[in-house]
Amino acid sequence: MDRGQVIAVATDDKHRFSKRQMNEIHILAGLGVEGDAHLGVTVKHRSRVRADPSQPNLRQVHLIQAELLDELADQGFKVGPADLGENITTRGVDLLALPRGTVLKLGANVELQVTGLRNPCSQIDNFQPGLLKAVLGRGPNGELIRKTGVMTIVLKGGVVVPGDAIAIEFPVPPLLPLEVV
């Protein structure tokens, strides 16, 4: 079982690009982060609601690895925890390499199941020009790599605070790669 750590937690009750860092967040089973605009059983992302408001919410809690923030800083961008709209910023877990269905155990109680990748949109360039290109890459076979974190659903709720340990429980094979959700 690999281990990582929660670096920051954030929420926002409005659909803004960035979230507000908090001392703790309360995660509700089957719903997401208490008080967050994306809380719910069905989709809350505005473009997805317009398409079909009855879709299941596979984007209840958004996680980004702090290593991305380090990479962006090396390229001259100033991006901190919660700036890209994530609820949880992690360190020490390669979120993008996790297979679909992986369970992340945060702190004493919280269990999040990875559903897929976040697809960065053009709004990211409104935050800082050129950032969209910086959070996209190409793999060895020319495939697009989206670096803006993973989306999860909540299996078990509880409180998450910076400093909480993250344990990883991989799903039963076959391991399926992450896709955009």
Automatic annotation (TrEMBL):
MOSC domain location: 20-169
Keyword Transmembrane helix: no
Protein name, per record: MOSC domain-containing protein
Keywords, in A-Z order: Plasmid
GO MF term list: catalytic activity; molybdenum ion binding; pyridoxal phosphate binding
Record carries keyword Secreted: no
Pfam family, one: MOSC
Domain of life: Bacteria
